[in-house]
Amino acid sequence: MNYRHAFHAGNFADVLKHFVLVETLARLATKDAALGFLDTHAGRGLYPLDDIAMQRGGEFRTGILPVLAAAAPPAALERYIALVRRIGGGDGALGAYPGSPLIAVELLRAQDRAAFCELEPLEAAALRAELRGERRAAVHERDGYEALGALVPLPEKRGLVLIDPPYEDPLEFDRLARTVVQTHRRWPTGVYAIWYPVTRDGGAARFLAQMQASGVRRQLVAELMLRRPDSPVGLNGAGMLLINPPFRLAETLREGTQWLASLLAPGEGRARVEVLVGE
Ligand SMILES: C[S@@+](CC[C@H](N)C(=O)[O-])C[C@H]1O[C@@H](n2cnc3c(N)ncnc32)[C@H](O)[C@@H]1O
Fold it and tell me: Is 183 left (phi over 0), alpha (psi -120 to 50) or beta?
């Protein structure tokens, strides 16, 4: 496994993913009943901007930094932006970009619980250190797909599963689709958020077609494209597939992603928030 998220943290794809994560969790947390959160590919939790890999990758410079510098972001993005500043802040300039575990923990209440899976030992150790003293969270150094079989349905009976694999393996999309459908069969009322890359190979379109034909109801897609999907550049866009999205999430995602597309790729950028499968 070569993937290190520090080369990419805070890029446009992280902005999309974490904006969707924040808005989904915040809506789920409006009901008093306890929530569970499972992050199958959690990463290290916090990415200081002066880290060597962060500096070398530098992708935050064309992702989170222009978002924070923008004069008038829309209301849809306010909660996400405030949270990034609160965790990664310092006075004024951003010191670190938060990963999904720290973002989630910030939104959880006393009655909620989170489980984080990370296969890479150094990343898992770093995450444990970030979450030291956090009694609502458990870090598991284990395969996230296997964890879905062991930990879902979540004991709280309501909650969110975030699936955010590195897509290094050409068969990742197949494993993902198979596992999501199996997991959904065991826990059909859970909320699922799945991040995917859009590159020229067409893997994302095949994955979405597979999910559309799977029999799983209530699926929503939120995509942020910086370039045409067939551009040879590499990561042309990114998407989040949501299963059982909270009520009225789509409107907020539409407002936020349209603004992000015009900010991060003026002229060429596109956003799409669409129901993939209805009720
Ligand atoms: C895209 S990064 C996660 C980023 C994180 N979810 C966030 O939003 O901040 C993917 C992570 O999955 C880890 N990983 C790779 N294969 C895994 C597996 N089979 N199970 C669990 N973690 C895995 C990698 O080490 C990497 O830290």
Answer: alpha
